[in-house]
Amino acid sequence: MSAPLSVNLSSLSATEALGRALAQLCVPGRQLCLEGPLGAGKSTLARTIIEQVCGPQSDIPSPTFTLVQPYDALAGHEVWHMDLYRLTTAQDALALGIEDAFYNAACLIEWPDRIAVLLPATAVTISLSIIGSNSRRAEILALEQDQAIIADALGSHPV
Ligand SMILES: Nc1ncnc2c1ncn2[C@@H]1O[C@H](COP(=O)(O)OP(=O)(O)OP(=O)(O)O)[C@@H](O)[C@H]1O
Ligand SMILES: [Mg+2]
């Protein structure tokens, strides 16, 4: 891992641009961990990635109670959107089938700290902080080649 890639998100559209860039990594066997406090923009990022990878959706509910919401990517694989805020033990996540999803689906994981012990070492972490009412910062920790893919995608799709 190299130093985190830091991205200033001065508006909602900047966060959406980051989501479209992160969609490059939303492929089977990859996990994108979305960290940050309430209202940081985790679900906003997840929704943008889902629409980029799966096409426009009529509804992208927060899986607050179901914990997991699967989608079909245009490329044929599944995308699992997880909101693990209410998960009590990592063991409960196994019952949801997440280990299988780690290998066969692309996973977007809100509140990944709930399953820290289960996460593959290659998981990408996007850590969001709230800077102001419309301003956020993202710190992206990933393998060097993955950070380069994100930086390239951000460069070719500027806000
Ligand atoms: N630059 C920005 N990036 C992301 N969201 C922003 C930004 N500026 C304002 N917002 C607003 O902040 C809110 C982020 O909400 P969102 O549901 O994405 O957060 P969350 O991290 O998933 O929170 P929770 O933990 O409560 O589910 C939205 O209302 C969004 O419009
Ligand atoms: Mg959320």
Your description of this structure?
The protein has 159 residues and is α/β, with parallel strands linked by helices. It has one domain: P-loop containing nucleotide triphosphate hydrolases (Rossmann fold), CATH 3.40.50. It has 5 helices and 7 strands, in the order βαβαββααβββα. Strands 1-7-6-2-5-4-3 form a 7-stranded mixed β-sheet. β3 and β4 form a beta hairpin. α1 packs across α2 and α1 packs across α5. The chain is globular and about 40 Å long. The model has no long low-confidence stretch (mean pLDDT 95). The structure holds adenosine-5'-triphosphate and magnesium ion. The site of magnesium ion has 5 residues, from α2.
